[in-house]
Design a protein that fits this description.
148 residues, alpha/beta, Chitinase A, domain 3, 24% strand, RNA polymerase binding
């Protein structure tokens, strides 16, 4: 029989499955971030126990990611009094508009909820700043209004 008529397996045409990428550098987290990582591990373990066989591989891949994040998590040290660091809630003023953000670990980041990862450009510009300081960012000036 000609090779042209050979049935190839369905697996040959699937996209390769890669591990979820892990951000380079330290895995600094807030206490809330560490709790979220632990909760995700527990959730995935429960889902895998009752998942359909065709979904288990993807779930296990996600579980490997969260196990790695849990194993490498380091609680970020609290910043010095009055200085912005990981875990700080900061109110800034940019172009006349006030905005409050919290600087958190990468896995905890949720920009829509006002939480940005410490690796984000805005967070890097603010870390180490103090109240009433003006910081240059993306061609604009940001004023630090309050730090909590």
């Amino acid at each position: 029989m000609s090779v042209a008529f050979r049935r190839e397996s369905d697996e040959e045409h699937l996209e390769p499955k890669f591990e979820r990428p892990i951000a380079p550098g330290p895995n600094l987290v807030t206490p809330r971030g560490l709790d979220l990582i632990r909760a995700e591990v527990v959730r995935l373990e429960a889902v895998i126990a009752s998942a359909a066989p065709d979904a288990v591989d993807a779930l296990r891949r996600d579980l490997r990611y969260w196990h790695t994040r849990q194993a490498t998590a380091e609680l970020a040290p609290p910043p010095p009094e009055g200085e912005i660091g990981i875990g700080s809630r900061v109110t800034i003023r940019q172009n006349g508009q006030a905005r409050t953000i919290e600087i958190v670990g990468g896995d905890e980041a949720d920009p829509a909820a006002g939480r940005i990862g410490f690796q984000a450009p805005l967070a890097r510009a603010l870390i180490g700043g103090y109240k009433d300081e003006a910081v240059a960012f993306a061609g604009n000036t940001i004023t630090i209004v309050e730090i909590a």
